[in-house]
Amino acid sequence: MGNCCSDVAGGQSAVGGTGVNQGNQPNAPNEAVDAFLKSRGYQGLYSQIELSLSATSLRDRDVLSKSDPMAVLYSKEKDGSLKELTRTEVVLNSLNPKWITKYTMAYYFETVQNLVFRVYDIDTQFHNQDVKMLKLEEQDFLGEASCTLAQIVTKSDRSLTMDLVSGEQFSGQAHARKFGKLTIFAEESISSKTTVELKLRCSELESKDLFSKSDPFLVVSKTTESGIVVPICKTEVMKNDHSPTWKPVFLKIQQIGSKENPLIIECYDFNSNGKHSLIGKIQTSLLDLEKLHSAGTSANLFIPTAMGPKQENKVLKSQLFVESYSEKIQYTFLDYLAFGYELNFMVAIDFTASNGNPRLPDSLHYIDPSGRPNAYQRAILDVGEVLQFYDSDKRFPAWGFGARPIDGPVSHCFNLNGSSTYCEVEGIQGIMMAYISALHNVSLAGPTLFGPVITSAAHIASQSLTNRERKYFVLLIITDGVITDLQETKDALVQAADLPLSILIVGVGGADFKEMEILDADKGERLESTTGRVAVRDIVQFVPLRDVQNGDVSVVQSLLAELPSQLLEYMRFRKIQPTL
């Protein structure tokens, strides 16, 4: 997930993107490559966050001295259960402790990471015991607080102070007693920022195709201590090229462990069915790659000819060159959050007739009396649940398209709240209420047009850019069918690529969304307008809900994983640095 993103074309997953693609060379299809990487264990990227805890004005539970507090950190799982992560040391005789024990955890943008903190007064008779052995039920409870990791890292100083309360508040009692304050400070590990930039090329690659040259791409993987090979990034696919030079890839030192740790670079011939053919590979390390660059030499690829204990390798004529090698501290997604940037959520909902009569249970817009969310509601809740923490005012523009308001013509961009003057609603529940209300006040119609809602979102992003606001906008479009204004949508997206805007598209229902995937440059070529202008960056993520709703990867993670990389790519495109 990040920086939390699977990579965009160009193998830029490690830090979420690189400079803008120059010229008109399109990106090759990467859908099968992404599925291929995930099948081999690629789980996206993250930042390492170190948490420090302190408290003030704790309750004094001891008679002859002050409390001896210890803090316990838990993660709150989806089923509501708590999983203990760590315990601090015990600070003696203090109502204002600053604990030395730190806890390092991975921050994933695309996941809501719920945390619970509990503070205990440790009885004197247990002071000589290891804190891990203490039975918490035998200690005096001083209070608890809960938050998400996102609530901490979105603060400008990455510090969040909360009231410690009795556990009853979390059971529905609104007037729980306050027992002091707890402060959590988050610091991003420097290893999350130290990045190696590599530009790689190959020569004399062997052909794996019968009637054309190979379509090569590289996969860079690390080998864990247990011998498992885990992919960490890839390049783009180069069409019909036996001497390719790929765009730079970025590798975080954190991902690899150290410059001496073993790496495997594999060269594959791209096949659209996902069954890519291995052309050759090398076993190396960052240190070895640095030496190749310094000496101006190359390494021969090899291909295994026998497996098992006596594995043999056939050395090929194909060679790998390191065109450039550099190490630098790169700005991260969290740096821009600390600089004051927000993610502003927007949503557009498909009200075309192909969704079916909302009053009937087989409709995609059917509102189940039991409260079970339909596909539209689920997508709104899942995406909004993550993004709401990055939007301070939580006022979200919300539109519908493809419907006929009462006594009016078909509209391809109407305000979901029914207003003729403003489009915002209050919070995620505001979106849900406006959506249900709209179902009673419009007639489903058609056709399916994206252009108008994209233009509306782009107008808001453009105004924000003009006003020099520190905002990046995320438009969620939920649709049940293939659009009929494909070229107009391409034109709107090419224009929008210049703006602080990303677009997430969720396909619901059983339609064939193959044509829709054209809009996602991960799964096709870089978009081109009717005037021949090529989009400066990929801003679209598309996923059919049916492809992920029953799998291990949620629709949220599939959609949101690349958002940090798209934001970083935009910042580099605009040469915006998170410094005063």
From TrEMBL:
The keyword Cell membrane applies. Residues 28-162, 178-302 form the C2 domain. GO terms for biological process: defense response. Signal peptide: none annotated. Pfam families: C2, Copine. CDD domains: C2A_Copine, C2B_Copine, vWA_copine_like. This is C2 domain-containing protein. It comes from Solanum stoloniferum.
